[in-house]
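## retry 2 of 3
previous attempt timed out at serialization; input unchanged, resubmitting
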Amino acid sequence: MSERVQNRSAGQGPGGKAERRLAAQLAAKKAAEAKRRRQSILGALSGVAVVAILVTVFVLVNRGDDDAAEQAAAPATSAPAAAPTAPPAPQLPEGADPALTKKPTVEAGKGELKKLVVTTLIKGKGPAVKSGQQITTNYLGVFYKDGKAFDSSWDRGEPATFPIGTGNVIKGWDQGLVGVPVGSRVQLDIPAELAYGNDASSGRPAGPLRFIVDVLAAQ
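## retry succeeded, writing output
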């Protein structure tokens, strides 16, 4: 076998070089195609990730807007109404009966009332009320015949202060409270002529009246 034949068989001839170049070109082409496929896949994945992020942000923003809209549309709940507070207990003179801190109960009178009747329910330990003094009282007034209330300092939540024995109040009070010890609770049964009279059209309580009066102070 000649040397030329041996070289060709060993792949060193012109035909062998061409084959190697072709193989290299094919390999380079395959590598380039593989690179392009990887880049395409990565680009697609990146696009999907971006879209997913945008969708998530959009959903969260819309959810926040919906929550805000629901809160704005929800009717405002009104605060619970405050429970009514009881009037403060009256300031009692020293040594007074604690019963004077409670509103008295009053019943209707019996029979025909012809004169002023003063009944001591609780006797106080203070000085006697004098004509011309300013007295402070808690009182409850009712109609003598049926016991229905028409006036009460208890319901207003504060005692009443006024001069006594000087014509500033009805005669039944001027006459019935002078001489009563401070700290007392008295019942005044007052005929119409010593109260507001019998004329109901005047707007004042007409007929005989009954008052429960607590004398808290006198100056």
